[in-house]
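BUG: 3D viewer hangs when loading the predicted structure for this chain

Environment: internal workstation, default settings.
Expected: structure renders.
Actual: progress bar stalls at 90%.

Input used:
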Amino acid sequence: MASLALTSSFLPSLQLRRRKPEVNAQIRFSSLRSSLPKTAIFGSGVRTSFRIPSSLSSEAKSIKPALDFRSSRGNLGAFTVRAASSSPSTVAPASQPWQGAAIKPLIASIATGIVLWFVPVPSGVSRNAWQLLAIFLATIVGIITQPLPLGAVALLGLGASVLTKTLTFSAAFSAFGDPIPWLIALAFFFARGFIKTGLGNRIAYQFVSLFGSSTLGLGYSLVFSEALLAPAIPSVSARAGGIFLPLVKSLCVACGSNAGDGTEKRLGSWLMLTCFQTSVISSSMFLTAMAANPLSATLTYNTIKQTIGWTDWAKAAIVPGLISLIVVPLLLYVIYPPTVKSSPDAPKLAREKLEKMGPMSNNEIIMAGTLLLTVGLWVFGGILNVDAVTAAILGLSVLLVTGVVTWKECLAEAVAWDTLTWFAALIAMAGYLNKYGLISWFSQTVVKFVGGLGLSWQLSFGILVLLYFYSHYFFASGAAHIGAMFTAFLSVASALGTPPYFGAIVLSFLSNLMGGLTHYGIGSAPVFYGANYVPLAQWWGYGFLVSVVNIIIWLGAGGIWWKAIGLW
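Structure tokens produced before the viewer hung:
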């Protein structure tokens, strides 16, 4: 192979370099230009070919060059010529890289399912339930090891359930009609408009101008802003996806932290994980902060005939909740730190950016108005009988009609469609595990085991709490978990001597906190994980660590507070 390099402001000379045989020659630019086709365009990135002038040696004449122009800002600057010798040499074609599944993770996933499939079915469990558990766990292993993208792994799991007749097609794909996956997908479309219009940057710069001198201060400003909105917006998916994901992404981009280019840990990784983990805390602090919280209150009344009111819930949660909101961001700041921790000049630079942006554009005004409309419907949706996903669809419709966001841009949001696929698949499989009776069998087995240990009510309740909490790895919905296990665990805890109201309110709080374990355990999880700032293994690892800290805070400091207010 030979290479020719041509450089200069307007290329006064051409340097020809060749290996085997080695050729060095100088060619005047005017000579080269005369040999170029008239259609050659300098500085435009056009690739063309040219004749080697007759003044070159015979060695050089045997070269068949291709001219590759590279320009910057309309100036020619430099271009290179790559040439191949006409001598007959055999070059092996480059092999195409394997683009299919990663083999070892795929084998691990399939092996998990096969082994469990052939384990004898326990007494009291139907064959269908056991087979679905095998497929579900194989899918979870695949989601963790990622032989393929998450949506593809989930689709394979659904395919296996249909192929084995474990689920019908309509059952396997039933969760695609569930509002939560669609609300999460719509959140990504909102984020697109938020960033595209520049509104996200404008708000991000406002935050940076106020709190940006400290990364930790910036994080706390977001954490407590979300907590203040929590009691007014009863959908954690809506809060996370419709309001805070676009804002957090804009802040990350404004601070030079982007997904996929190696700058994730500059700010984005810590901020995404922090905002997610604190969203489950704020959801646990108010009866109206998460859609499934009223279900816990209803099941409490049905089981022990005692009512958990809004004030009762908030009063019990306020102390451990505030402690967690302070401790968790700081903990993550220490064990998963951003690389940029202090930016004394950031507020000044942010104000300069705001000045350059000037007044809001028409698209920014439309985006802001649409956001206010959507949030207003989330806040007053109960009165107006408009649910969260309907409000989000209405908001997206406004953006589409006004051209703020186009349908092509929605289709290009690959993460949104991927998240919709895998989250809906997990909801369907987890839901049918409950319908097939596996969860009730598990609950009954646990309560019989704990009840037979003969421990004090405090220790028995502690065991029940841990089993209830960490069984959430098998659920893709807080509501499904509460519906399947809350009543059974509360009944056994009460029978073993736990104060019934105390047991109910603790299980209610934990029904939110357990959502931080995985990237599918609560509505805000797929939203923040889908931003692709935190690898899956780290998401799960830090999720488990934070869960331990939250349990210690809520049962430790919370227990002291609950004793002080007379809950036990």
